[in-house]
Amino acid sequence: MQLEDDIVAKPNYFATMKNFALQLASEDWMILEFSQLGFIGKMFQAPDLNLIVEFIFMFYKEKPIDWLLDHILWVKVCNPEKDAKHCERQKSSLRVRFRPSLFQHVGLHSSLAGKIQKLTDKDFLKPLLHKIHVNPPAEVSTTLKVYQGHTLEKTYMGEDFFWAITPTAGDYILFKFDRPVSIERYLFRSGNQEHPGDKIENTTVEILPFSDTDLKTKDKYKKTEDHFYRIGQFEKGVAEAAVDPIFNPVVALRLTVLQDSAVWAILSETDWLRLTQLDSRDTAKSYKIPSGLALTNRDSGKRFSFCADRN
Q1: pTM of the model as a whole
Q2: Can you give the pLDDT at residue 129?
């Protein structure tokens, strides 16, 4: 764990960090961030320490350490033949941000000679309005009208809550996974402590299997015209259920609004218990989302984890 000598910490910060790390025990993370500032509050896994220390030792005179951390992630997971959005999605799977921040910077003097550093963490002491989970790499699109800067991209990366203005019938949120993934359970929770009435209702949960040949589900699940299966719906602001194994692996998950809503939408938690994620080499063909889903979206192609609010 990397700290500094000019910070203050929240009470019980160690227990909070330990519990968060244990929640992610099955995830392949490299850096957990408990502060948004510089090189403060960064947790690493022991097997990665030699690589990180050696990289920093080679270049610490050239750039600040927090910049070097980003370069390490780029070297590990970014493909020069892919675009910047793909790179950011890959890096975010290794770099997980905990909110609100557990540490606040109180020092003034920078390590750079003669420089005064008046930096403070705006997330310190803020109430937590969304619950963070590590979601599988995915692109997201939506027809919902997003309020101010509370975007789907920030939410999927665990940086903020998602906030949408009065959903209408036909609106949707679509998750297209980078690779087919087997999901055991899903959880979507709406509303939060500041706006408990902003719940999602009259909305279905739908999945698109990698292959739906010979699926004997006609009597139990409704199949949409674009080949999604309706497997659940929101009740009292929450959608939570197990996924029938016959659908796995899946290439996309969608929330579809069935009726106009009188309130705004807060989605404060998104979690999927996934079993495996297929490598592209494991699939015989590249699966494409049906062309009918290629709609004009306000937040197309962004990484997403659910949450929302009006504040």
Answers
A1: 0.59
A2: 59
